[in-house]
Amino acid sequence: MKKLIGFKKTKIAVFISGTGTNLKNLIKFSKLKSYPFSVDLIISNTNKAEGLKYSKQYKIKKKIINYDKKIKSDNKILYILKQRRIKLICLAGFMKILSKNFIKKFKGKIINIHPSLLPKYKGLNTHFRAIKSGEKFAGCTVHYVTSKLDSGKIILQKKIKISKKDTAFSLAKKVLKKEHIIYPASIKKILN
């Protein structure tokens, strides 16, 4: 049997604010030998994030950071990331905007999943806006994070057809399934 000599998985941190479905999915993929990363840290801006339960379930360290004082919060997170030797940050439904200074310190090492085919529909309510505009397609995008909202270089995108029956809710469910495919694939792509 061939052993992977010196093969160490890259430590990643996942930032969440909500249910954590992408987090759970990334944890699942991190357990596979063919995926070069391990989820080493979960950071949330709220203790009400449902996804925090995966910290206990999978024995992953979690930190809840109060975002009232942005600079203080950023410095605290940067310190924790350095301590835990985190090499990549994955934003997964993280509802806070990182400061320019934070992004600069982790330049090229922060990625985000966004529920639209960027550059279209940056920001919130993407599915509702896509349907309202009469789009034929929706989808999701994994991109690098820059100080301009949802504007960084695109890593991967997945497109799906919007049906006449789709509502913002049904479209969100369809897009989420695609997110679960392209997020781990994007991490693999940039780490390999």
Provide a concise account of the structure shown.
The protein is α/β, with parallel strands linked by helices.
Low-confidence stretches: 1-5
The separation of the N and C termini measures 23 Å
Strand content: 15-25%
Could you say what the CATH topology of the largest domain is called?
Rossmann fold
Assembly category? single chain
Radius of gyration: 17 Å
Strand order of the largest sheet: 3-2-1-4-5-6-7
CATH-scheme architecture of the largest domain: 3-Layer(aba) Sandwich
Largest sheet, if any?
7 strands, mixed
Helix residue percentage: 25-40%
Principal-axes geometry comes out as globular
Order of helices and strands: EHEHEHEHEHEEH
Number of H- or I-type helical stretches: 6
Ordered list of secondary-structure elements with their pairings:
Blueprint: E1 10-16, H1 21-30, E2 37-44, H2 53-57, E3 61-64, H3 70-83, E4 88-91, H4 100-105, E5 110-114, H5 126-132, E6 137-144, E7 154-161, H6 168-191
Parallel strand pairs: 1-2, 1-4, 2-3, 4-5
Antiparallel strand pairs: 5-6, 6-7
Task: Walk me through what this model shows.
This protein is an alpha/beta fold and 192 residues long. It has two domains: 9-107, Formyl transferase, N-terminal domain (Rossmann fold, 3-Layer(aba) Sandwich); 113-192, Formyl transferase, N-terminal domain (Rossmann fold). Helix content is 34%, strand content 23%. The chain has six helices and seven strands. It has helices spanning 21-30, 53-57, 70-83, 100-105, 126-132, 168-191, and strands at residues 10-16, 37-44, 61-64, 88-91, 110-114, 137-144, 154-161. The chain is globular, with a radius of gyration of 17 Å. The protein starts with 9 loop residues before the first strand and ends with a helix.
